[in-house]
């Protein structure tokens, strides 16, 4: 499954569509302005909220939290003691961990579970300027979750670069 994301992205209050490789709108990332903390919603084409994404308020390290139907789904933070600034850890609610590594700010990175590739985020094959692709490699993977992970990691990397 391949998705295209327009990269005017990640300003709070900004909304943008994620399309499939046929150009059909699939998900809307709805940035919530006027909130105390960074908040996004990933919605389907009918406007139903599939995933809530928010910055955790009281954490020692910047952490983004992903929720589905009010239940914690994942927490994302930069990996501790990593020599690479572009290495993030995703801890799922069941304790499973995903690794995200690569050139986050260049939109060239991968999401892996236990060494197995789940998704590749890349600008390489995109002809449209300021667009990157999210290629979900495994058929049994949750595309909404992997897109939410990409949104979170890019947001954390951008905030780290700013501050």
Which spans of ≥5 residues are poorly predicted at pLDDT below 50? none
Radius of gyration over all CA atoms, rounded:
15 Å
Overall, the morphology is globular
How many helices? The count is 1
H and E string: EEEEEEEEEEEEH
Percent helix, as a range, is 10-25%
User: How many strand units?
Assistant: 12
SS class: mainly beta
Instruction: Characterize the biggest β-sheet.
Output: 12 strands, antiparallel, barrel
Mean pLDDT: 84
Strand content: over 45%
Within the largest sheet, what's the order of strands? 1-2-3-4-5-6-7-8-9-10-11-12
**First-last Cα distance:** 35 Å
Structural features, described:
The model has no long low-confidence stretch (mean pLDDT 84). Strand 10 and strand 11 (116-122) form a beta hairpin. A twelve-stranded antiparallel β-barrel has the order 1-2-3-4-5-6-7-8-9-10-11-12. With 163 residues, it is mainly β. The longest helix is centred in the last third of the chain and has 20 residues, at 143-162. It is built from one helix and twelve strands; from the N terminus they run E-E-E-E-E-E-E-E-E-E-E-E-H. The chain has one helix at residues 143-162, and strands spanning 2-6, 15-20, 25-31, 39-44, 49-55, 63-68, 71-78, 87-92, 97-103, 108-113, 116-122, 131-136. The radius of gyration is 15 Å and the shape is globular. Belongs to the LOR family. This is LURP-one-related family protein.
Quick summary:
The protein is mainly beta and 163 residues long.
Question: Could you give the topology of this structure?
Answer:
Blueprint: E1 2-6, E2 15-20, E3 25-31, E4 39-44, E5 49-55, E6 63-68, E7 71-78, E8 87-92, E9 97-103, E10 108-113, E11 116-122, E12 131-136, H1 143-162
Antiparallel strand pairs: 1-2, 1-12, 2-3, 3-4, 4-5, 5-6, 6-7, 7-8, 8-9, 9-10, 10-11, 11-12
């Amino acid at each position: 499954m391949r998705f295209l994301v327009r990269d005017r992205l990640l300003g709070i209050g900004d909304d943008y569509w994620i399309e499939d490789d046929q150009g059909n709108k699939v998900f809307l990332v709805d940035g919530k302005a006027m909130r105390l903390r960074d908040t996004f919603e990933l919605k389907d084409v009918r406007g139903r909220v599939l995933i809530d994404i928010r910055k955790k308020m009281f954490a020692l390290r910047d952490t983004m939290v992903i929720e589905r139907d009010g239940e914690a789904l994942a927490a994302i933070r930069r990996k501790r003691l990593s020599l690479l600034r572009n290495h993030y850890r995703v801890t799922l609610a069941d304790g499973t961990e995903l690794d995200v590594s690569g050139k986050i700010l260049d939109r060239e990175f991968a999401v892996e579970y236990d060494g197995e590739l789940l998704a590749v985020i890349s600008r390489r094959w995109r002809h449209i300027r300021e667009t990157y692709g999210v290629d979900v490699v495994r058929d049994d993977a949750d595309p909404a979750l992997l897109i939410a992970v990409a949104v979170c990691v890019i947001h954390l990397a951008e905030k780290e670069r700013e501050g």
